[in-house]
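Recap for those who missed Tuesday's class. We walked through two folding examples back to back. For each one, the amino acid string is listed first and its predicted structure tokens come directly after. Nothing is annotated here on purpose, so try labeling regions yourself before you check the end of the notes.
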Amino acid sequence: MTDVWSSRAQAMRDSPTHREGPDLDLVVDWCEPAEGIQALDVATGGQHVARRLREAGASVVTVDPAPGMEPDVISRAEELPFADGSFDVVACRIAAHHFDDVPGAVKEMARVSRDRVVIQDNLFQGERMEEAEKIRDPTHVRRYSEEEWRRFFEDAGLEIDRLEIMSRRMPVDPWLARVPVTPEVAARVKGFIADELEDGLVRHEAIILRGRTAR
């Protein structure tokens, strides 16, 4: 699996969906970066969150299980190799739907945070979208609902003080090509998400949450 993601590293760095957007702006804002702030970027991918946090003056450690993403530390989100309360803020953006154990990962992020955890991920949009995601990308595990995300944070001892749901329409062909897929697979995926497609754009919903620790 890490080999698959290493092979996608440049695509993740170049992806406009990951490189920019109001969702990235909000994640960075909720992290409250500044000089002296120590941050952890979990499943860093193209390192876009880390880049923005550093630009704002924070000191950032990046973590990813794929060596090709060139993280500071190679690790799964479910097994973060840091002591309790090592960072002021822990962030994770557009990655959790690939995790084997999301509740466990959120607990780990809460454990190593002194103050806040900020997570963004794609929101559950029905079983047909789930099937399309798995056909497009076998590394996809599952999107989760707002209710499930609230429970993950609560079970991790995090008190949610910010939550926002964002919806946007993205070109479907670049989304498919980023993996990439064969024309036959692309056609199957489009068939599953026909209700979400309009003028070559597919609707994606994302949830962004910030939780505070009890420390």
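Example two. Treat it independently of the first, because the proteins are unrelated.
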Amino acid sequence: MRFWIDQHGCAKNQVDGEELAARLEASGHEYVESAEMADLIIVNTCGFIESAKKESLGAVMDLKAAWPDKKVLVAGCLSQRYPEELAAGLSEADGIFGNADLSLATAAAVATITGEHPVLAPPQPSGVTETRAFERVRLFDFPGTAHVKITEGCSNNCTYCAIPLIRGELRSRRIEDIAEECRVLIRRGIKELVLIGQDLGAFGSDLAGRTGTELPELLEALSALDGDFRVRVLYIHPDHFPERILEVMLRDPRILPYFDLPFQHASGTLLHTMNRRGNDAIYLDLIRRIRSALPDAMIRSTFLVGFPGETDDDFAVLRRFQEDAQLDWLGVFTYSREEGTVAYDMKHRVAKKLANARKNEIETAQTPITEARLARFVGREIRVLVEEKVEGEELALGRAWMQAPDVDGLVVLRGSHAPGDLVPARVLAVRGVDLDAVPTDEASRPGKVRA
């Protein structure tokens, strides 16, 4: 059987897709590069918010319309959240497969290709993930990068969030298991390890006898590994930020001072209704402490506007916080009303038009902030992880340490370079959210340059 995966959703879902591919290939099936070449099309869906659900469903219908004789297996978060509804109402689906137990991937694929119309979506497990991660043969990142999922699920229970409904409660992997996976990836030539989970600040808090202080221990274990690589940590809930990670980053420049802190809002009143504990003063103090310890720190965040009960005064607090915080990178989302969440039945909903206007205002205000924050890198030397060549030009696109995959800007690097290379370069200019750079001779560089 030849199969192809149509990937949707976040990086955590991407890792699931990579494991799906590895399990099917280990069972003797062949991964192909397009739907046209496949016998089985696997749509790895997202079920987090309404727009993502619509995108995934649209992909299923479009692929079935384009290839009516091929089998379509609907996998991922949407299948985990709505297995019976999809089986009953989505005629384009030849099979439904959730993400709770990826060891069932081959059974789901074979049952789909043979016309059995399987619905395999067991509930999410509880407790510690004891088994070693399944080795991924192919990675869906650009060359040189690999995402490593260190937790599954989430127990924060933010009132707007469907993640616990889809992926269950927090389950942390063992440090030794993660370190071994990273060691293998480094041997394969990976230059950037991106640690992901719904909230890495909670890593280890579900383990018996632990207090949730395990993220610094994990980073210390990764710092002990040999090799020319860098580690990026994404998604730390700001209400329980493990500050000891700052010490690890100070000791080892390979552990990047890049912080993805989803503040979501700055109004203490609104954050309380989200089941979060912070406010503008608390979060500004956290930013100050991070930048005091690591002056070069890059801080990314997300804001959620249009949450039920958000008043003009709440939004004004958020805008003041945006100006005071001077965040390096910022994404903004409008509230999506998700059934099964506490917020679903909340009153005082905000009109979509107003929510979108607030989103646009924040995005417009952020552009000059990001440009000004990036200006400090002009004239400095960095190392660029090349992702792809620009066709027909002597240019390449890549990322430096201050840029996370997919969500931040890029480095436009002069010259012809191979994807996956780490190229020493000097920043010439800021172009919007991107940096222009030219290669330098690493041997002649003064001082130490961060990975």
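Answers for example two:
The CA atoms of residues 284 and 325 lie 6 Å apart.
Residues 442-448 have pLDDT under 50 and may be disordered.
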